[in-house]
Amino acid sequence: MSDIVRCPSCGQANRLPASGKAVCGKCKTPLTGGHPIDVTDANFAETIGNGSFVVDFWAAWCGPCRMIAPVIEELAASRTDVRFAKLNVDQNPRTASAYRAMSIPLLVLFKDGVEKGRVVGAVPRNKIEAAIRQYL
Ligand SMILES: [Zn+2]
């Protein structure tokens, strides 16, 4: 199991300390510990603008979104080549509409801020990994 996580802010690879609060060695941003990061209308473009990202478009009322959430958590914890983010479509309508998130759960794959592909529905982990291989 890898204990390296990428800084959600600058992308620097960091080794997680065994104890204590983990911060990026380069920019001092608190590290997420391999959890998906929450993105909003306000920080979306800036956050995903650099590197490979899978963004989970979700809503609290969406049953299938709750099914895919633990899969996204697992992937975020196990992969350092791709970062994972979650966007609540109800709270962030501007971004949801910009990416035509009509049907959720929706995973949109980004490279340096440009959409490379998307996966709709509560798909199994291997389908998400296949999409990452295909698009990123
Ligand atoms: Zn950093």
Task: Explain the overall architecture.
The protein has two domains: 1-33, no CATH class; 34-135, 3-Layer(aba) Sandwich (Glutaredoxin). The mean pLDDT is 89. The longest helix has 16 residues, at 63-78. The protein has a five-stranded mixed beta sheet. A two-stranded antiparallel ribbon has the order 1-2. 28% of the residues lie in helices and 26% in strands. It is globular, with a radius of gyration of 14 Å. The protein is an alpha/beta fold and 136 residues long. The structure holds zinc ion. The site of zinc ion (ZN) has 8 residues, from loops.
Entry summary:
The protein has 136 residues and is an alpha/beta fold.
Q: What is the subunit organization of this protein?
A: single chain
* Classification by helices and strands: alpha/beta
CATH superfamily label of the largest domain: Glutaredoxin
Strand portion:
25-35%
List its salient traits:
Glutaredoxin; binds zinc ion; five-stranded mixed sheet; 136 residues; 28% helix; 2 domains; alpha/beta; single chain; globular
Write the layout of secondary structure elements.
Blueprint: E1 4-6, E2 13-15, E3 37-39, H1 44-48, E4 52-58, H2 63-78, E5 83-88, H3 93-98, E6 106-111, E7 114-120, H4 125-135
Parallel strand pairs: 3-5, 4-5
Antiparallel strand pairs: 1-2, 4-6, 6-7
